[in-house]
Every structure is written in C-alpha cells, then in structure tokens.
C-alpha cells in the first residue's frame, strides 16, 4: 500500500494507549503489561502496553494511511531525544495514555 501521510500523531486514553503508561512512575498508574494484552498482536502473547489483546482503532487507521501500525509511545522515546525526533518525523508519536481525561471529575 502507498503511504498517504508522512506521519500520524495519536491523542487519547486507554483505548489508544500503546504503552505510555508503562513509563509513568507510581504504583497506582493503570498498566497493561500482561501477556493477555497482546495475545492477538503480531509477535504472540507478549505484553504490549496496550489495553487490548491486539490491534486498536489507531492501528487500523494507520494501516489505511499506509503506515505499518500506530506510532510508538512518546514516553518510550522521550529519554532519547534523537530517537524521539526521528520517530516523530518518520512515523509520528502516540501521546495516548490510559486514564487520560479532561474533566476534574475523571480524577486524572
């Protein structure tokens, strides 16, 4: 498939999180780092940091746009500024984080 866009940037909550929460400190941070959360994802039953057992909506949109899958988690790249910059330019970055909310009542 032809790549229709140069990069994709994802904002959202647990439905689009690709592992950002695994890099957040604290014992009460929701994490999806169990093998069941990757059982249907390519590569077999390994923890993916996703709150799903396989692909999610952003992956399908990315594939329709000619990308392999949704972009990597921002926090997985943040400690390495060069990798972050290259990824942001080449494929994009995912800022989605489980528990994200815009209202005080969400507790996040």
From TrEMBL:
- Keyword Ribosomal protein included in the entry's annotation: no
Q: Reply yes or no: does the keyword Repeat apply.
A: no
Cross-referenced InterPro entries: GDSL_Est/Lipase, SGNH_hydro_sf
Print the keywords alphabetically: Hydrolase
| GO molecular function terms attached to this record | hydrolase activity
The source's domain of life comes to Eukaryota
Question: Per its UniProt record, what Gene3D superfamilies does this chain match?
Answer: SGNH hydrolase
Q: Which PANTHER family match?
A: GDSL LIPASE/ACYLHYDROLASE FAMILY PROTEIN (AFU_ORTHOLOGUE AFUA_4G14700), OS06G0725100 PROTEIN
What is this protein identified as? GDSL esterase/lipase
